[in-house]
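In this supplementary section we document a worked example of the pipeline. Step one takes a protein sequence of length 398 as its only input; no multiple sequence alignment statistics are reported here. Step two produces a three-dimensional model, which step three serialises into C-alpha cells for compact storage. The input and output of this example are shown verbatim.
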Amino acid sequence: MATGTFLPVLNEVEKASIRERQPLPEAYLDLPDEEMALRIAAARAALGDRLVILGHHYQRDEVIRFADYTGDSFKLAQAVSQHPQADYIVFCGVHFMAESADVLARPHQRIILPDLAAGCSMADMAAPDQLETCWAELQQMLSPALSERLELAGKPGSRVEGRVVPVTYINSAASIKSFVGEQGGTICTSSNAAASLEWGWERKEKILFLPDQHLGRNTAWKMGVPLDQMVVWDPFEPFGGLTKDELEHAKLILWKGHCSVHVRFTAKQIEQVRREHPGIKVIVHPEVPFDVLRAADDSGSTEYILKTVRDSAPGSKWAVATEVHLVHRLAEEVAPDKTVVSLDQFGCLCSTMFRVSPNHLLWVLDSLVDGEVVNEIVVPEEEKKWAKIALDRMLSIT
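The serialised model returned by step three reads:
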C-alpha cells in the first residue's frame, strides 16, 4: 500500500525537527534506532511490574511496539484500573489522555507523558471559559417564561430545571470533563457514543455535545435523529450564533469543533478509490464529515474498524479512513489474505500524536530507573473530583 513508503519519510522529517519541540537532554538526540530499542527494553525490564506503558493506536510503530496495552481512548482508560500495583503509567498518546489516566489512577500512581508537546487540536477547540459562557446562555435561552414556570410548578412531577445535559467526547481537557461531570453529564468515546446519547436523552430533552460536531452528528443520524433537529453552537458567536427558536427545535446541540485528521477525508476520495479498486469496501471513523460517512459502506470506532477488517472474508479489499499508522499496521497484519489501503493516498497523520518519539520514551524511562519522574501529568484535585464522576459514568455506559 502507498503508505509503506510514506511513513519512513515522515520519520526522517521528525528526527530532523526533534530539537524544535520539548527540549531533550543532548544524550538522547541522534541515537541509532537499534540502540534506543535495546535501552528501552532494558529500562522496562528494570522497572518490572512498577511500570505500565499505554499506547494509542495512532502512535508510530517504533513506540507502539513497547506498549503493554494498545487501543483507543476507551480501551486504554479501562486498562488504567487493571494494574493497581503499578507505580508509573507512561501514556504514549496526547495530553488529554494522560489527564484521564491521572483522574482514574490510584493515589500512589504517577502519570507520565513522554512529550509534553503532544496535544490535541480538537481538545483545544473547547476552552473552559467558552463552555461556561455557553452553558449560561443556554440556560437563559431555554428557560421557560415566568408564567410557564408558575404553571409547571403547580403540576406534580413537572421539571422546571435545566433542559440540557452535557456530553463531552473524551478528546477534551480535564477542566471540560470536570464541568460536564458537575452538571450531571458524561464523557463518551467513539466506542460508546450512541449509548451515551441514549443515556443523555433519558435524562433531559436536549444534549450539548462537544467538542467534535462530526462524531455527534454522525452518531445521532445513525440513531435516527433528523438533521433538522441538530444545530451547531459556535463558541465565538454571541449565543452560539443561534436563535431561541432554533434551540427550541433542536434535540442535539453540537459544539463547533472537529478532528484535523478526519476532516481531510472526502466523498471524492471515496469515488476515486472505488474506481481504482472495484469491489472495495470503505470503512470510516465517525469523526469524518457527514457526506463522507454517507458515502462509505460502514463506520465505527478504531476498535470496530480493526475487528471488522480482521473478521472479513479472505480476499476482501478495504479502504480505511482514519489515522495512517493504524491503517498501515492493519494492512501489514492482514496481508496477503486481505487488502487494506488508506482512503487518503497521502496518509492522514495525527501530527501531535506523532510527536511521541522513541527518544522521548527512552528519556522518561531512564529517568524513572534513576528515581526521577519527568513530564508528570497532574490534574488539580478540584477538577479531578467531578472529572472522575464523569469518567466513571462513561465506563458504566455500554
